[in-house]
Structures are given as C-alpha cells and as structure tokens.
Amino acid sequence: MGTQLPTSVEVSEIDSEEGPSSSEQLDAGALFVLKSRGSWLHCGYHLTTSIVAPALLSLPYALSLMGWFPGVLCLILAALITFYSYNLLSLVLEHHAQIGRRQLRFRVMAEDILGPAWGRYFVGPIQFGVCYGAVVACILLGGQSLKFIYLLSTPKGSMQLYEFVSIFGILMLVLAQIPSFHSLRHINLVSLVLALAYSACTTAGSVHIGNSKNAPPKDYSINGAMQNRVFGAFNAISIIATTYGNGIIPEIQATVAPPVEGKMFKGLLVCYAVIIMTFFSVAISGYWAFGNQTKGVILINFMVDEKPLLPTWVLLMTNVLTLLQVAAVSVVYLQPTNDVFERKFADAKFDQFSIRNVVPRLVSRSLSVIIATAIAAMFPFFGDINAVIGAFGFIPLDFILPVIFYNVTFKPSKKGLMFWGNASIAVICSAVGVLGAISSIRQIILDASTYSLFANV
Fold it and tell me: Where is the stretch described as Disordered (predicted)?
C-alpha cells in the first residue's frame, strides 16, 4: 500500500503537538531555544529588536559620508530591498513548512536549497560571525553608554572604558541565561518602546541644538579628496546595511506557532513601521544639525569639550534608554549561539530544566558572554570591525541569499520580471558588498595607528 504525504494542515497539527518539527524532535536546540509557540505579534517584537537597535545612531554619520541625496536614497532603497528580501525569505520558509520540512535555521535552509556545503561552510559560519560580532558590538556600546552616564555625574572621573564594558558584561551574564527565544517576547516589547523613546530623544535633541545659539556651522559638503569620498561612500553603505541587517529571519520565524502562513509578513509590518519612525528621523535630524562634523555615534555630538549642549537630564535619560535596549538586542543575537550550544551539549531526552541540561547551558552561555566581553574591552574600536562584518555578513545574508533562495525554490519564469529583478538585486548587492568590504578594511588600516588594546576611547 502506498504512503500518502501529510497535508500542510496535518503537518501543522504535528508541529503544534510535538514541537518545532517532527523531523527535529530530538534536537535540543530546536526544542529548548527555538520554541515554536509565538504569535505574529511576538514575531514583530523579535524582528524590531533585531533590527531597530542602537546602531541606528550611526546613520547620521553614514549620511555625512554620502551627502543628502545619495544618503537618503540609500536609506530608502535599503528599507525597500530588506523588506522585500525578508518577505521572500518568509515565503520560502512557508513553502517548505507546507510540504512537511519546516526549516528552523538559516544554515538548514541553505543546506536544503543550495546543498550541504553551502550551509556548513558558508551560511553557518557567516551567520555565527555576524551574530557573535553583534553581541560584542552591543557589549561595547553598553560599556560606552555606562561611561557616558558616569562622566555626566563625575566629569573628572578616573574609571576606564574597559571597566564599564566589564560591568555591562556581568549584566549580560545574567540575561544570557534566559532559556529560550520565545521567553524574550515581553522583553522585546519593552525594547520596541525603548527604541522609539531614545530615537525621539535623539531627534528632539538634534533639532534643539541645530536651532540653538550653540549650533555648529551647517556644512554639508563631503570632506576629503575624491578617493576618500568614494571609499567613504561605500563604507557608509556597509554601515546602512549593518543597521538594516538581521541575519536571523529563519530563527525568528521558527519561534512562531504553526501554521506559519502570513505571520512573518504581519510581523514585518510592525517592524518596518518602527523603522520608518526611528531610522529616518534620527538620520535626517542628526545630519541636518551637525553636517559633515557628525561623529560615528550621534550622541557624541551632544557634548563639546566635555560640556553638554543639552540639559544633563536629557542626555542621561537618552543614554539610559539606549543602555537598556542594547541589553535586549544582545540577548536576541545570542540566540543562534545558544542554539548551537544547546544542540551540541544538551540532551533532548531530559527535561529542559533538569540538572543534566542546566549545567552545560550555564557553563556554555557564561563562557560565550565572558569571551565577547573580553573582546569588547580589548578592542574598543570594534565599530570599524563591525562595518567589515556588515559587508561580509549582513549583505550576503539579508540582501543576496533571500532572492537566490526564492528563484531556486519557486523557479519563476526567466522571461518574467520577478526572476530578473531578483537576479539584478543579487548581482548589484554582491558588487556593493565587495566594494564595501574593501572600504571597511581600508578604514581599519587607516585607523589602526590610533588604536591600542583596552584604549579608553
């Protein structure tokens, strides 16, 4: 007697009863970290925290490297392309879920669609590097926010940046023990509110300073010789790509309870509504207020010669809000790392909170945070390195692979607009990614002479 494949409804029922997917029911990472219990609204919270992060405070600097028209155009194009590519990625994931193979990880997705080598040697390592790099960058930013708060209250204080990074790392040691991605849903709702709040404070602060008697001269010309301008523009593209980057769409969709159809699209609408309100307001107001004198993080412009241009309480509140949200972002980007550890060291035959599973989880997650904190303290110029990560990581994962996955999976007609539109996005973004990587590496080489380990920047 022949075997009949289950329908998508039956597959959804199996998923609901047995976990993420029947084929992965013994996978501790899938069962313990990527719990498929969330709603589309929870998905929106996760997406917003993973994208709308304090990295958006560097967008005015990106505009200063490109000028008004190219900078704003890049912001708009990046928003359109990433929304489109994330939606394509979601459709591909939904398609495989309907045929009985729900893909819970980016690596697994690449293995199924492009072959085992792509997942094992390309997508897996790149995603791990991107996510862990984001954790290091967040811990560094958390330390810088703590230092900024300290200097507001103690202008002549003697504490060094690496001490604040270590303090923030201790906080992350605690938060890293949150058991699953789904457990972060309420934290990520608070994170969404925090992002709106500090973006509003930053925008209002920029507008106030730009209209005040202390306003700096507004010069929107691009500094440097032509060669530096070209490299700077591609470096700005890497910064924008990193800001819009996600890199964990499959893992976020894995947290959604089946059936998954349409839920990611609703979550994306929530996320991009927040993006429009935050990214564009901060980028445009910051560049308008400070022009080509805009610093790598716009909040630095709010201080001149260690004197605040805004009331101290405004700066304090903005930095506290940023500090709180960066903690949530760090925990989100720890999830793929946690998934790897859980899959390797945990045993799905035992309860998630049994001694057998709690001890290796505590040890592995703690070591992960300790190493990330040490890197952040040693290399406080990690912002430059993060631009390289954006070029090598976020552009392939978020701009290139989604359109390739869609074309390979659904095989749109080569005579149609969909196929050639996707192919054009892949080719153009690949070229931009290579040029962005070259520009980012060049910037590291130029800045290397000014850096030292454990520098108090």
Answer: 1-23
